[in-house]
Write a sequence for this structure.
């Protein structure tokens, strides 16, 4: 174990305690199940990548809102990923950002009108956050990091995985906020009637508090880097995904993490 | 062991003042205000105070125990936080509310940021705002007390519906209130903030004992008083000076200025910074109280300024002895270097173009 995992040698106790899902799940890269698991756990947009913070904080006042926001984003994400992937040979490198925005905005407009027509109550309560999906950094991020470089099938799976991950994150945050702040879950009274709702949780400060706690929990389980940079496990899945998204791309060994680890070097792939 | 040969890092001369001593001095200084609160509102107020202190100390102990940290209950800081939370409660509050406030103050605001000395915001005030936002109704319901003092709630207005409101609510409308009652403390309000005289006594005790300096409370109250005086005169209230004194004595201003704004952890350490901090507090409180319509001017201004403390400290850092000329020189050099860099860059650009 120690040979495969040089990160463990630095701090065996931390390595033992840490829960590494990547050691249990081995999926072929760029297949549909791998993309979905990746979106839900390894690169969960909210908890791991800290993308899409604005809708996460603003629309998680109730579980119903969270579901609405999550599903509409998922739908747009899948469609925009598909079209960007299909058009990736045509879109010139220098014009890719404006092109992505046009594609995303088209689908946001479609979803916006559909929601206004079929789910007016939801549309009303989500308000400006539906049009704002155009500038949602999860969608832009996936277009830039994945769909612009991979085939349509994998891109659809990636969009679905990311969307589901986003939706799950929103629901989890919203469940805590609604339960504490309102005593209900998806509109149904769950807490006993003596429970006095702690109003702050459905207001903006509560969003920050709850999100911070969840991110802290995720970091505790997954990223040793949250504690000390040296403890970072270089073979961990999260460390090395995509060089384009990687903040450590400068001064990087340029090798995939597994190769660098096999060399026994500090590989940050 | 020969004590003359001990090796240690500087500083080698240490004062006798410890965190423990400071905290117990603060507790002693808060005692008169608590006593007045209990006299005004009866034994129920004492219960609220006790519950806050005990729950605060217990939550500190449990957190540190569960996370295998050094137990710091005995330094008294948790007790001070708890007492301040209790003093910020209306006397008739449900007892679980101060409990929740204490847990929030100690666990979320103090310990999650690293414990005493690391919190960016006054824990007691953070908890007060947390409770006020969450339970606005309960936190602002002031039932008449059953204490030894007769409470003055009547004013020259004819509305009976207002009885039970705090004096500050009257002052907001520009009406006048019995100044003597405000000063002594037989008025409605939170347990610890009713008696300006008792808080003032505690504050002067702290200043005399050199626990706090006059800079923050002095500049805070001074700045607020001047602004209020001007406002009262401009708005044409009957007696601007009396009105200003009433504003100074009413609400949480005294408690905030003497005991909360002066919290070591969340106030600047530089002398100039402390005065800037105090003046900004006075200005913000004036804005909240006399310009804005919301309550909680003092709490929000102190919390807001707590966040700006690092910035204030950065800009008011005192110059080390003998460094004034050096600093001027450095600045001159830096300017020259920048100009040089700009010149080189421009030259390089020209070269590239041609």
């Amino acid at each position: 174990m120690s040979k495969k995992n040089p990160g463990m040698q630095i701090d065996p106790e931390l390595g033992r305690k840490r829960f590494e899902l990547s050691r249990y799940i081995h999926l072929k890269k760029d297949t549909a199940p791998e993309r979905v698991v990746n979106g839900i756990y390894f690169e969960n947009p909210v908890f791991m990548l800290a993308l899409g913070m604005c809708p996460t904080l603003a629309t998680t006042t109730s579980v119903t809102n969270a579901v609405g926001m999550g599903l509409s984003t998922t739908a747009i994400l899948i469609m925009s990923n598909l079209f960007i992937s299909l058009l990736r040979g045509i879109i010139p490198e220098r014009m890719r950002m404006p092109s992505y925005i046009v594609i995303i905005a088209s689908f946001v407009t479609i979803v916006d009108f559909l929601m206004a027509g079929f789910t007016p109550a939801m549309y009303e309560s989500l308000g400006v956050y539906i049009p704002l999906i155009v500038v949602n950094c999860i969608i832009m991020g996936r277009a830039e990091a994945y769909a612009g470089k991979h085939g349509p099938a994998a891109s659809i799976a990636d969009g679905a995985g990311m969307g589901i991950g986003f939706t799950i994150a929103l629901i989890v945050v919203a469940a805590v906020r609604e339960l504490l702040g309102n005593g209900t879950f998806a509109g149904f009274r769950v807490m006993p009637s003596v429970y006095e709702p702690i109003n702050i949780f459905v207001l903006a400060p509560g969003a920050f508090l709850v999100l911070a706690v969840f991110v802290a929990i995720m970091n505790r389980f997954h990223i040793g880097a949250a504690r000390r940079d040296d403890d970072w496990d270089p073979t961990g899945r999260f460390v090395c995904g995509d060089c384009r998204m990687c903040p450590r791309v400068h001064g990087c060994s340029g090798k995939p993490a597994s190769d660098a680890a096999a060399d026994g070097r500090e590989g940050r792939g | 062991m020969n004590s003359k040969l001990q090796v240690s890092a500087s500083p080698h001369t240490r004062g006798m003042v410890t965190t423990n001593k400071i905290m117990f001095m603060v507790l002693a200084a808060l005692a008169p205000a608590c006593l007045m609160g209990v006299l005004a509102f009866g034994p129920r107020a004492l219960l609220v105070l006790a519950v806050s202190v005990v729950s605060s100390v217990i939550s500190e102990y449990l957190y540190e125990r569960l996370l295998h940290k050094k137990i710091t209950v005995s330094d008294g800081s948790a007790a001070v936080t708890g007492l301040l939370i209790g003093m910020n409660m209306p006397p008739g509050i449900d007892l679980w509310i101060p409990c929740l406030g204490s847990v929030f103050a100690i666990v979320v605001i103090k310990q999650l940021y690293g414990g005493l000395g690391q919190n960016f915001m006054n824990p007691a005030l953070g908890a007060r705002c947390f409770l006020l936002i969450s339970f606005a109704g309960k936190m602002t319901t002031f039932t008449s007390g059953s204490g030894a003092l007769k409470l003055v709630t009547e004013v020259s207005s004819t509305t009976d519906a207002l009885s039970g409101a705090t004096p500050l609510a009257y002052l907001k409308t520009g009406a006048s209130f019995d100044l003597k009652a405000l000063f002594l403390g037989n008025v409605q309000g939170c347990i610890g903030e009713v008696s300006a005289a008792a808080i003032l006594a505690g504050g002067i005790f702290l200043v005399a004992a050199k626990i706090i300096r006059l800079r923050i409370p002095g500049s805070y109250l001074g700045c607020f008083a001047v602004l209020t005086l001007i406002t009262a005169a401009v708005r044409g209230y009957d007696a601007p000076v009396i009105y200003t004194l009433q504003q100074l004595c009413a609400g949480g201003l005294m408690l905030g200025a003497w005991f909360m704004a002066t919290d070591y952890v969340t106030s600047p350490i530089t002398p100039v910074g402390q005065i800037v901090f105090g003046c900004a507090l006075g200005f913000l409180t004036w804005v909240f109280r006399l310009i804005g319509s919301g309550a909680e001017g003092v709490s929000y201004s102190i919390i807001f300024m707590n966040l700006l403390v690092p910035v204030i400290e950065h800009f008011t850092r005192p110059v080390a002895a003998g460094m004034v000329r050096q600093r001027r020189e450095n600045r001159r050099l830096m300017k020259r270097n920048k100009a040089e860099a700009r010149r080189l860059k421009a030259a390089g650009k020209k070269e590239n173009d041609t």
Q: What stands out?
A: The mean pLDDT of chain B is 85. Chain B touches chain A at residues 100, 108, 130, 133-136 (CB under 8 Å).
